[in-house]
Amino acid sequence: MAGEVEIQRALYTALSPLGLNVVDVGKQTTDGGSATPFPYVEIGAIILTPFDTATETGFNFVARLHTRSRSGSMAEAKGIQGQMYARLHRGLLTVTGFNFIMCQRDTSTTEYAPDGSFHGICEYRGLVEAT
Fold first, then answer.
1. Does residue 29 sit within a domain?
2. What is the mean pLDDT of residues 17-32?
3. pLDDT attached to residue 26
């Protein structure tokens, strides 16, 4: 069962219609800089932990979503985080092979990165049950 892959697919499907550039890994140039057009959202780590009952197999998940911006201020990254919140927090995801139970944002932060860009990180916690 590839729960992490299906959750990543569901997040991509939920965020892409917002007009956001959504990737699973931002491409880099040979000197380590970003080759992905800014701004973008990167679907990072997805951590699954078992959450079974006596009759059902389920998983808690934490999905780490990164926002990257070079707008000159934190406003763009925070605005993207707001769009993601409106779509994902208590929203509905279609996770193939699972019954989706819930998703909500746990944490959100935005920081200035050494390359002059802004890096935001949001963590979403959710619960799915295998079908």
1. no
2. 81
3. 76
CATH of the domain at 9: 3.30.2000.30
Q: How many domains, in total, are found in the chain? A: 1
71 residue type, one letter:
S
Residue 4's SS3 state is: helix
The pLDDT of residue 31 is 64
Q: Kindly report the number of other CB atoms within 10 A of residue 7's CB atom.
A: 27
Which is higher by pLDDT, 25 or 70? 70
Q: What domain range includes position 69?
A: 3-24+35-107+115-130
86 in Cβ contact with 18 (< 8 Å): no
Q: What's the rounded mean pLDDT across residues 2-30?
A: 89
Print burial letters for 47-71: b (CB count within 10 Å at least 16), e (below 16).
Answer: ebeeeeeeeeebbebbbbbbbbbee
Instruction: Give domain status of residue 30, yes or no.
Output: no
Q: Domain for residue 64, yes or no?
A: yes
